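Chain A, query sequence.
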Amino acid sequence: MKLIDTIRGWIFYLLLAVSIIGLAIALIAAKPFLSLKTRYERICRPWAKLALKLLEIICGVRSEAVGLENMPEDRPAVVLCKHQSAWDPFWLGAYLKRPACFLYKRSLNRIPVFGWALWSMEMLAIDRSNGRSAFENFMRRGPEFLERGWWICLFPEGTRVPPGEHVRYKTGGARFACATGTPILPIAHNAGHCWPKNSVAKHPGVIRVSVGPLIETKGRDPKDVSAEVEAWIEAEVARLDAEHEAA
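Chain A, predicted structure.
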């Protein structure tokens, strides 16, 4: 079964690579003519859904979500999401109610084709080696995206963390949310069981996603907010893991 999962994984990645070439061509060609939001809704969101559909058809991995009603219709939000694998950005890009603006390493822009597509969307690229100045750049540019109606998406763990492991959450997302008075939308999931970190193999199954209620930040201490986010996400992940083991 592990060999089959690996073969399916390679087939998925091959088709995903082909789709990324098409994505990059479409985004770069449309850049002079369409707004960022239009490019996102007409090109990026459909592509993210296509990637998830390929994952389902080829690898037998699908997702089910609860709490979608917690996504606000007419409010800005900072999305803080569990980070277990490379699956997370696909789901966020496909199903958040507003365009997703990701905070990511500027070095990703140098990756052929994929990096060009990422660059064309003008999201929040930072140079982590610059330390404090990188965070200050995020604090300066982030509100611009909120004003445009985008949701800022971050992974507070800072790295992909396999199921059953835990790292202390970074407070950057909470600090930004508190500084701008923007509510936080916490999202938990157990994608690591089907799409493991650093693995080509994709294991058939259902990835369960839970979208939590908004966490208000106005006038609050960022450390308290970060602790609340971490407690909710980790408790929800533990619940999802228990359901996975029982299935």
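The helical segments are 2-30, 36-59, 87-95, 114-120, 132-147, 172-180, 222-246. The domain at 2-246 is CATH 3.40.1130 (Glycerol-3-phosphate (1)-acyltransferase).
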